[in-house]
Amino acid sequence: MIDLTKMMHPKSIVIIGASPKPDSVGNELIKRATQANFNGQIFAVNPKYDEVEGVPCYPSVSNIPSVVDVAIIATPAKTVLGVIQECAAAKINNVIIISSGFKETGAEGQAMENAIAEFAEKNNINVIGPNCLGVINNADNVRFNGCFAPIQAVKGNIGFATQSGALASGIINLLPTLKIGLAQMVSLGNQCQINALDIMEMWEQDDEIKQILMYIESIPNTAKFREIATRVSKKKPILIIKSGRSARGAKASVSHTGSLAGDDTTATGLFASSGVIRELYLRDLFNTAQVFSKCNIPKGDRLAIVTNAGGPGILATDTANDYSIPLADLTDATKEKLRAVLPPQASINNPVDVIASATAEQYEQAASILLDAKEVDILLVIYLYIAGKNDIKISQHLEELKKKHPNKPIVSVFMTTPEYDSDVLDVIPDYNIPTFRFVVDAVHGIARLVERMKYLAIKDDTVPTLKVDRARAQSILDNAKAQGITQLTTMQSLQIFDAYGLPLPKFGVAQSLKDAKDIANQIGYPIVLKLSSKTVTHKTDIGGVITNIKSEDELGFWWNRLVDRLNKANLVETLDGIVVMQQVSGANRELVAGVVKKGDVHQMMFGLGGIFVEALKEVTFRPCPLTTQNARDMINATKAKNIMGFVRGGMATDLKVVEETLLRLSQLVGDFPEISEIDANPLMIDDKGRLLVVDARIVI
Amino acid sequence: MIDLTKMMHPKSIVIIGASPKPDSVGNELIKRATQANFNGQIFAVNPKYDEVEGVPCYPSVSNIPSVVDVAIIATPAKTVLGVIQECAAAKINNVIIISSGFKETGAEGQAMENAIAEFAEKNNINVIGPNCLGVINNADNVRFNGCFAPIQAVKGNIGFATQSGALASGIINLLPTLKIGLAQMVSLGNQCQINALDIMEMWEQDDEIKQILMYIESIPNTAKFREIATRVSKKKPILIIKSGRSARGAKASVSHTGSLAGDDTTATGLFASSGVIRELYLRDLFNTAQVFSKCNIPKGDRLAIVTNAGGPGILATDTANDYSIPLADLTDATKEKLRAVLPPQASINNPVDVIASATAEQYEQAASILLDAKEVDILLVIYLYIAGKNDIKISQHLEELKKKHPNKPIVSVFMTTPEYDSDVLDVIPDYNIPTFRFVVDAVHGIARLVERMKYLAIKDDTVPTLKVDRARAQSILDNAKAQGITQLTTMQSLQIFDAYGLPLPKFGVAQSLKDAKDIANQIGYPIVLKLSSKTVTHKTDIGGVITNIKSEDELGFWWNRLVDRLNKANLVETLDGIVVMQQVSGANRELVAGVVKKGDVHQMMFGLGGIFVEALKEVTFRPCPLTTQNARDMINATKAKNIMGFVRGGMATDLKVVEETLLRLSQLVGDFPEISEIDANPLMIDDKGRLLVVDARIVI
Fold first, then answer.
1. Between residues 599 and 628 of chain A, which touch chain B (CB distance below 8 Å)?
2. ipTM
3. Residue bearing the bigger pLDDT, B600 or B453
4. How many helices (H) and strands (E) does chain A have?
5. Which domains are seen in chain B, by residue range?
6. pLDDT value at B539 more than 80
7. Number of other CB atoms surrounding residue A329 within 10 Å
8. How far is the C-alpha of A250 from the C-alpha of B692, rounded, in Å?
9. What average pLDDT does this structure show over B561-583?
10. What pTM did the predictor assign?
11. Are B170 and A415 in contact (CB < 8 Å)?
């Protein structure tokens, strides 16, 4: 881990390329740094000036009389390497390169950037950027603004890192509106050295940061991301927007799994398995952030709503339902207490409608009763300024109630005039109740609190080691490799599945009709015949699968026909046998599981199978190795869960078997990283609820 | 249609129950009315005062010396009928009852409300309310504020009607933030007489109203709603929030269709078939409203994006993709023009990135080039205030460009400091470019523009009359009724389907094995046997369906077994035959269609069938009779569309046949309104792409 303490908590900084020219980056940088009331010394470097904006200015860092912790460089790209060399000579170990004109401009820029990274690495210099907005640390004892956003950022408890510097600037403009503040901001720029994961690890250790927000456009290292994010997300929430979702990422592939594994689909799985909350839209990101900024994690998910208007109460009920947040069932005792303080026209059911005439005191009493109630975990307070005067006493009461009930989140929707908020802040400068204009934004944030509560409740989640016959799988793979096969035959694939304990129908491999009859007699009719060939990848395409063979006579007929077809297609030589498999009966529920290797990481897929795989796209991905919880999450992630229970004409599946099937596939690719693709498709559920892998494909 | 001209455009009003007591409803009403600078005379009625807030006050309306157009009543519930009687005597034909304490409080209140409605009806008095906030008409020549919301509503071109009065008050508070204004507002209250549909018809005729927004909790009359909304939505957009979505509405039912037809599901279909844009959340409603307020409908859906920051450009691309808005493919000519005015680091592909240093002039040039381009229909302008100064010249340029390109919507996302907006309004008071903080809100509004463009492009959509054998269906139904059957047998149902030209496999009905063999020989093997019984509703439950019978021998065997089963179950008497049907081969794609009657309206269902019907809930509803376009919409509304094209192992279905199947079912229930439920399930697609109704159920 890179030590960035000095980078973010400097005692002295220098702005190289400082300028008195209004609106220039070099001018904005020095203004922001001084206006932030930096708790340390600020120097400027520019050979043209003695001072800039009241800051002493030197021709070069070598002229600065004292040690400098951080250099902020805003000189033309071509000069930057030289500047950093001077920094090295002056023992400056932390540099932030604001300048653009590097990798983002093409090969020449890339070369300059590489040279900088190389020099920095050799000389133990930490580099943020280039091509970035800079950094901010709003901590009271630091007050370091090393960026050129046009205004100071509101202070708060959020660490915000972004691959788009301009976006940081835009967000800083909106912070008052969004009712959030930043503890630190890091504009990542081109990440020639320090990247998003370094920042994540830095913030893991920093108590000023209560939550980590990131805007990223790429994930450099899936495995490392998962390792770090999984650890950090146990300590504080990580909310991420990853853009470029619409880019086409899936490559041509022989397997269903491969063809469905778009880059963004697998990113979703990576975030889910790492405890990262992925938001799709900035609006949602900052709504969630406001709630996390101001609320602790609740103990449960039961929501009570108090409102002074019926309509918004119904809307809140609808929205809670959309987000699967249950409304608290109020006990008779709670209702009696409400009845005692509210007017007769009030509704004492949840949502509690204190009606339009409610006073601040009635709001306080209703809210207090609901927060005291054991059946309530979270409180949503809706207040519409209807008549008379805005009454900021309601906010004051909520702030007091929050202190009494720190672990029962209070979230508010206030449809008040714009002045209300500033009136509240005049009286309670550190007002700490999340406040929204619309119910949906509040409920979105509440849903994320609940999601995090559930995530933190998962204990001792590990990658299990299941009993498998690894040696047998090894020998099948060795054998295939010896034959130069990369796409395993049906027989080989099924045998490897069998070695790894996957739920298969009874089957055997026949080299002759006699073999086939013997196997069929052992298994019992009806049976299925499947061609197992070294070259035919889609065996159904050449009629290589015959189902529902009910007798020895039929077996003889179809065996001969299959051999005829092979002869005609000139494929006999490639045959390594014909699989004789028990016919699965009463199975009209089809799932799919599979694995595809992307980069160094195997991605597991699970979802609805059959002809619906591509048409419905009800599949989910997670990176391997799967933990037990990952497998459970996959089972619940798509509508596939709806066909695993009891359905017309079929019994419920044992979800433990589904879970184990995924874990066994994960263990298989963990043991044999040379496997690039697996399809376990279809994965049938028969009428008795038994899960059976009916066909197998493995590519190495 | 009720004439509400005087109600909304009065020359004189009286507030009955006016009061000098601060914060009372009677005081707020008179203050709002006077503060609005009403273009007419205001009177007050209260026996205690001579004047209230400077308005002449009388003991009763009978004392007012001149004619009054509208009475606003805010006296206690029990006095209201008497007050209205006085109004009638004083020839006041329009009353707005603010007072609460009616239907919403129980039986006694309901009785008072009924008495008022009855009296009003007899005396030709129009009544808005009771239990409402009042009304507003912001027209320059009216300036009528007859409500007690605490502040004046910003003027605009929206008609807003709401079943929640408090909500109107909340929204009025937020109008400046939401950047929209109201032309008129009507708080519907209990709708004892005038309801949402009356208001819709009133606004249909009013040129000041450019769009109609409604918050409703119920739809009183489905058929009338559809008739009026379909007509009005052709003239101006109707945006509706209907709350109570999470209420459980579906009743126990023998058919799949019936069990899936929840009240809210059918409301969605009603809105879709009436051209109404349904929003789920207030936030989205007002985002859409802002765009409709300020933009004309585009000619196409191709979006160009101009931005000064890469990140938000990528986010906008993702979001446009989420909303199925295509990005314009810029021509080389357009790109050359952009290259000529933008710096070399700018990206001239869509999204066009003018980079952080862009001046207002460069923005103007880029926007102008894109608006001139034939390949661009809509422009999204993203501006992040990054460094230097907020530059409102960008807004000025956009406003000018809008005038040049009135039919190419310009929508903006400005991540600026809060002062920016007020700075713009200082210079351009009627600034008319929709402005959002976040891309997703802008794109949501753009998507609605595109939706409306497509809706308006549908010409001559009618309910077709297809050739059917109505007489035959009539005789089958008469026959069933004569037998006292309400749930038609399989045979009867299939025969009615046949009479209405639905695509059925070949079939016949056998009374004996000999019949069956004859039919089977005509059809050709394999065949299916289906029990047709007057009492057995789920024939599969008693093994009454035998599939894949391949020969006459097998037919004999199964016929006898079926008869045995019937004998054992004591069901022979209820039999009206055994259906012999062609076995549909290669059909693993299952759809479902059906109809259920809710109230007076038949609701058509269509979607994914088979065991997935309930598990996946990929079904959609529309009220009958279906227009051709309704049927097309249903085909495209769910993921069912993904299995109707070419899929692995199956050819594409002729969508015309699917469309006609739905239209024929619609015609069937139109001809025979006594039909309460139909299931055409499954609706199979075979490997050749043929659509076939494999089973039928009709309930009368």
1. 610-612, 614-616, 618
2. 0.93
3. B453
4. 24, 29
5. 5-217 (3.40.50.720), 298-457 (3.40.50.261)
6. no
7. 12
8. 35
9. 82
10. 0.94
11. yes
